[in-house]
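Quick illustration for those who missed Monday's session on complexes.
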Amino acid sequence: MPAAAIPSNESQRLESLYQYQILDTAAEKCFDDLVHLAAHTGNTPIAVVSLVDGKRQWFKAEVGIGAKETCRSDSFCAHAILQPNELLIINDTLKDERFATNQLVTSEPHIRFYAGAPLVAPDGSALGTICVMDTVPGELSTQQQEGLRVLANQVVSQLELRRHVTKLNLELEQNLTKLQSAEGQLTRHAFYDNLTNLPNRALLMNRLEKEIEWAKQDGNSSFAVLFIDLDRFKVVNDSLGHLIGDQLLVGVARRLENCLRPNQTLARLRGDGFTILLPEIKDMSDATNLAEQIQKQLALPFYLSGKEVFTSVSMGIALSGAGCELPEDLLRNAHIAMYRAKVQGKACYEVFSAAMYDRAVALLQLEMDLRRAIEYEEFCLHYQPIVSLTTGSIIGFEALIRWQHPERGLVSPAEFIPLAEETGMIIPMGDWVLYEACHQLYAWQKKFPSTLPLTVSVNLSGKQFAQPNLIEQIQQVLQKTGLDARNLKLEITESAIVENPEYAANTLRQLRQLGVQLHMDDFGTGYSSLSYLQRFPIDTLKIDQSFVSNMAANQEDGEIVRTITNLAQNLGMAGVAEGVETLEQAARLRELGCEYGQGDFFSKPLNAQAVEALLENKPLFQTHRDSSNWLGQLNYFLRHPILLYHSLKNTSLSKEGGA
Ligand code: C2E
Ligand code: MG
Ligand code: MG
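Prediction with magnesium ion bound:
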């Protein structure tokens, strides 16, 4: 029997068929109804919705045939689809040579009559037919043919409808899956830290709250909170980059986890701060033992992106009870203790005590007072002369900030500068100092044109030095005040440079280009290496006062001063000795080749008014305590060293701020 030809658009036709995703699906009532209606219309015992697949015809619905599919080669419908716009009607299959030998004709169900209307999809492809068949020859009236055509359209409409619904269902399912995973992520996000996968603050607080509740019910049980903070994490971040910083945090998290028992919670609170909740502890030793174990675990180096990184942590421990009603109370106490550990020199742990709390409150008070002080301009500058040890003349002043506290009187910067640094208040404060100092010096230059070209030294804190717009800011201040850049000296400390040497080198170079001079303050107390000194355009080393004050008592300190002086000379820098308090020190420094000195021996820091009095009367520097010229004394004693010792006994120093 000749099989039907393959339609010319076969591949497109199959593609069109497959997009309905209907083949091999279960029976559906609407299609069943349509075939019943077709049988009724054709007045035949058999009706089928047949879809012509590559090698078979598959029946979506049928009456009177009892099969799901047949070979395509036996399919009448495979013939019907060749002419999509027409019905195929075979009144007697035995009389049609295309079908006379067809299996379905020669054996069960012995088809003798066939009429099929093609199912034409919107793209023109004929997918199959709705057809009617009989076991006796027959025919269809025009009306019946029209009915079959309408039914074919109905089948296609159903197919289209079904396709849309399937698509919508699929989309709905996808959205649901997305929604569920988003929900999961949200929960994760709400309670876990992304970087380390550790519980976050919210989850820790939940657990702390429960722990407090249990402890209250139990009465006997106590628990502890350990606050852990990485030491100098910022340095790692700044010098090795954030990627390595992140890797370090993850590495630390994993090592901390290794120290824990299953019922203990490790959380990451923020940046480099971790917290451990230790439930059900016997006594404090449970917590301190853990702290020691952590210290040991973290002492080993980390290997991150091919670099060996060392770190340490400061820890604070707080025990439950003692008025801790809220999770926040415990966390705060542990934090205060951790802070204490930092102050104690880092890499250690501290157990919270009530005294610590009082101190923290006092610090907070100071912070609030400082904020007010900035607002109400309670600061003023004092100026300490810097003196040439060879000529005795004042070469300039160091501007030193003072806080006129409404209740406490003059407060020393040692008390508030570290806090101002920590809270960022140093920035507005430093801006003010820089402007005020430049403004003042310019005024003095105008008022006392005959004095040597004076300079003013301004201290720059690490935070100020790290400001990205530092150069422009200094330029602006110079412009506004009219001061020549050569008269401004900036004092920075070694730590400001060590934290980010690349940035520091660049910034110092730019400052130098402006014409500003650069002083290394408190030299010898920081961590800078000699290679830094060579790389950075520093003009002057200020020898820290600790070396100067111990010079006479301690041979070694004398050697340090000599070494620093020589170092400065060899590198083409000047040396300023800080904290010169006695004639003996001044003499010794001069002997060692130190060019400049600053200290109470010459003058305490003076207020602006006192400086003016000084500049008016004494172009050559004189001490307040006797009428003779200190330089004269110095020269005299240098010639008669034995007398120096005796003169020291009579030394009494002037009071700060007086004139
Ligand atoms: P520094 O820059 O090393 O300033 C020298 C300090 O030594 C001053 O302390 C000064 O009063 C003190 N001093 C001077 N001569 C003697 C002496 O003969 N004996 C003793 N024992 N001390 C002497 P001061 O004014 O209390 O300032 C302390 C530190 O505070 C300064 O050390 C500086 O680091 C910082 N500081 C002061 N003013 C400012 C400022 O405006 N900005 C910033 N960022 N820091 C400032
Ligand atoms: Mg200084
Ligand atoms: Mg200093």
